[in-house]
Fold:
Amino acid sequence: MNAFMSSQQRTPYALYLHLNEYENIWGNDSTAPLRALYCAEVLLQQNARMNESDRRPYIDKEKKRTIFEETMRAFVHDTKCLRKLMKWPALSETEKQDIELKIAELRTENRYGQEDTLFASVHLIAESWFAVVHCMLKKCNDELPTKQTADFLKQVARIIEVQQLFVRILEYMSHRDYHRLRVNLRDASGAQSRRIHEVPALARKVFEGFCAHLKKIGVPPLMVLENQQDHVVFYLMLSAFQDLTRSFQSFLFNHYLMVGKILGASSLGSLGSQVNGLVGHAANSIFPELDQLFFDYTQITNFRYGHMSGKVVMEKELQWQVADYSPYTESHDLDQERVKEVVAQYFRCIETQDIRGWVQQFHPEEGQMCDAPGSRPFKGSQKLSVFMKNFFKAFQSVAPQILDLSVDKNTASCRWKMNARTYNDTLLSFSGTETFRLNTGYQIMYALAEYDAEAVATDLLIATAGIEYQKPVQFEMYH
Ligand code: HEM
Structure:
């Protein structure tokens, strides 16, 4: 007895769609994906024909037709690609007839009008394609990372991407006709689809196999990003995993939008989920590790290229004279102790992570801070606050030390050292100098920090992935 036959698997959804019978069609033999694919094609073509003959004036037939046409085009394209990619055996005429018979049988059982047929077909088509997704992911699981595996994963992503477009046909059902069916269908929900439910776990298995392979050969994922020219296939794999989670998340997100459009966002599904709560599911990546990887790389490159931060924009601003970043040059006699207190408070706020207090040391509109000579200064309270928030993305704690501080009129200069704990728990130490210019109200008008940010990036890379930074070969530009 196969898994779907067990009473446990007979969810109201499975019963509605007769999935246990379909399991026989899809089976587990080598032609399973082709059978599922064929089901999807037949159903889609039948639906397209039926919807063309739909004469109900209140239905948005035009929208439905467009979606059918686009999906047909994508399906036909994908079917060809898949067949080429997987070299599946062809279905015999008898097998095809068997499938068509089963589909016809199911159709005669839909008793709740035209929307029932459409509703059941759309779910069946999606189920058929998710059966193909299962087969492909299982196949990828046995493979080493190669270009073909990456192509395969991209194909899986593409299949799911097409689903999210295609299920939207349901948005153009007649509400009145659908609700009669919906209430009759109480307790059956697409959320009970075992195939869709298992996609993340299957995809994760492939991903974990890939990570284990990288570990075995001593290539940290950060190295794949850093030296992509040496790891082209792995880079393609990363990109394919990204496509995969993106398409699955888009599927869930578009499903949420569709459900909201039909039921209203405050409705409760028959399994007890509130519609507007579904959006949260769409936000979860299947591969949070990838998310972390790209965050790591963002942090590292923020420091690596810190010396040119905002340069492109600043050059244009200065050329068009829409901004002024010239350092404050006015000179006044100020109380030296009060100036020293401003500088001390500036570093104290960094230590206590008091972003508001740190920003308040500056003149609210004209105060600016330049984190590296040549970069675009952060000017005004809002920008200064963003700078500090970003700083605390990189470091969970910082202990700054002022090594020496001298004051001349309204200018203060110091050397500093920072012992920092990075977001990923690495201890880093770096030092630099800073110059401050204050106005007569003891507000900072200009602060310029100088330190080797590239060295911080290098330390962060070594600490995060244990690899050294090699300057990339300059890209050749196309003309
Ligand atoms: C008129 C169309 C649809 C409506 C009104 C609808 C409604 C709902 C509702 C209310 C839920 C929340 C669970 C619950 O309490 O029942 C849900 C979940 C779900 N439905 Fe649908 N659905 C529709 C179409 C589809 C289709 C075509 C599929 C694909 C085969 C599908 C797959 C799912 C999945 C996978 C979930 C779980 C999603 C998650 O956890 O974010 N639904 N649906």
Summary: The pocket of protoporphyrin IX containing FE is lined by residues 122-123, 126, 167, 170, 189-191, 193, 196, 252, 255, 259, 262-263, 269-273, 275, 278, 281 (CB under 6 Å). Residues 281 and 432 are 45 Å apart (CA to CA). The two ends are 64 Å apart (CA to CA). The longest helix spans residues 232-263.
